[in-house]
Amino acid sequence: MQVKNKNIWEINAKENGAAMLINCAINNALKTPDKDVVFLCVGTETVECDKLGVEVGNKIKSMSKYHVYGSNGKNIDACNYLAAVDFIDKMHGDSFIIAVDSAVGKPEQIGCVQVSEGGLRPGLAVGREFESIGDVGVIGIITDKRSDFCKNDKKHTDIVKEIAEVITKAVEIGIGERFEMF
Q1: pLDDT at 60 (0 to 100)
Q2: Domain parsing of the chain, residue ranges
Q3: What is the C-alpha to C-alpha distance for residues 80 and 82, in angstroms, rounded to an integer?
Q4: Concatenated DSSP letters for 146-175?
Q5: How far is residue 150's CA from residue 7's CA, in Å, rounded to a whole number?
Q6: Using one digit for the tens of pLDDT, what is the confidence trace for 144-157?
Q7: Class of domain 2-173
Q8: Taking the chain, what is the end-to-end CA distance rounded to the nearest angstrom?
Q9: Global pTM value
Q10: Contact present, 33 and 90 (Cβ < 8 Å)
Q11: Is 163 within 8 Å of 52 (Cβ atoms)?
């Protein structure tokens, strides 16, 4: 399923060509392709449903092409989110920021990736209200709103790994390349 509605693209991670579609959505949201790219990967490695940002951060960091904040041992979570945002703003104020996080959604959205212009607001799944961060938000829907977000479950681990892999492939294709999605 692909939906563009109010500058939000939704792509099923299992769909053929999902990485290319996610790449196109990110690049279409990119307003100035000549800026440095910074990834803010939000999440914690201790909670399976909230691990997506960390997994993506680990994979993208190995590319060494981008600035990456949020990875194993260096989680960006509720405890240090505001400090991380402040640091990134000071160090990379003129950069293009792509924020990555886990999310909850409707049961039929589980396994989808949403790319949105204007960043994202982390913490909503657990009732926290943080300021929006990023020029583009990339969220992976790991579970539904009725589930316990903090419950560790093998099915969540599999979904996180699958979505992290497709987001990483989207980044490997290249950020700053211009493709027409629709």
Answers
A1: 94
A2: 2-173
A3: 6
A4: TS-TT---HHHHHHHHHHHHHHHHHHHH-S
A5: 29
A6: 876 655 565 667 88
A7: alpha beta
A8: 13
A9: 0.89
A10: no
A11: yes
